[in-house]
Design goal:
The protein is an all-alpha fold. It has a domain at about 1-45. The chain has 2 helices and no strands. It is rod-shaped, with a radius of gyration of 36 Å.
Length: about 100
């Protein structure tokens, strides 16, 4: 490949090679900084942003959310009657 010259006498091919070597050096420095930060803090993600919440795998594995069954109208009436009886007994005992 022939060397191309600019008006200032600087080779474009030389500039491009220098730019590639500087970019490689920048990547090396960036990766060493990220590994140093990860070593020191332990909670930083690969993007350099601190992850929120529990670390992956730290929580106990569950089967999923339990579904709650609703009460029927008859069950609600039965609970209401029991609670009325309970509180009537409490009021009666408190008045003695």
């Amino acid at each position: 490949m022939a060397k191309r010259r600019r008006a200032g006498g600087v080779s474009l091919d030389g500039l491009m090679a220098e730019l590639r070597s500087l970019d490689a050096r920048r990547e090396d420095i960036l990766s060493s900084i990220q590994s140093a930060v990860a070593t020191v803090s332990g909670g930083w993600g690969s993007s350099g942003v601190r992850k929120r919440g529990r670390p992956a795998g730290a929580a106990k594995k569950t089967q999923g959310a339990r579904k709650r069954r609703g009460m029927s109208a008859a069950q609600r009436r039965a609970v209401s009657a029991r609670m009325k009886k309970y509180w009537a007994g409490r009021r009666k005992a408190n008045n003695r």
